[in-house]
# Entry
Amino acid sequence: MEDETKNKIYELLKENKIMLFMKGNRTEPMCGFSARVIQILNTLDTEYETFDVLEDPKIREGIKEYGNWPTIPQLYHKGELVGGCDIIIDLYRDGELKGELNSNGN
# Structure
């Protein structure tokens, strides 16, 4: 991955406590998996930001390498990968996601 791409990802994660790399945006998800994660985050009534990987092919590929995760969407909390759609669904169903996203530690 190019340094410019890596730095852009790093800055997005540094500036946003909860960051979702997805296809589309929060009002117009462009795939079902991204839509499902948006639905979960909205249900939890938590503040988060999104990045549309369809708008930047370098970020689209770079985030897969950055998080060592092959699929999109990818949810990050405090700069750490939480997971993709399946993991987010499991954490939500288990009641763990809200606690993790609302933790106060830096």
Summary: Helices lie at 3-15, 32-43, 57-66, 85-93, 96-101. The mean pLDDT is 93. The longest helix spans residues 3-15.
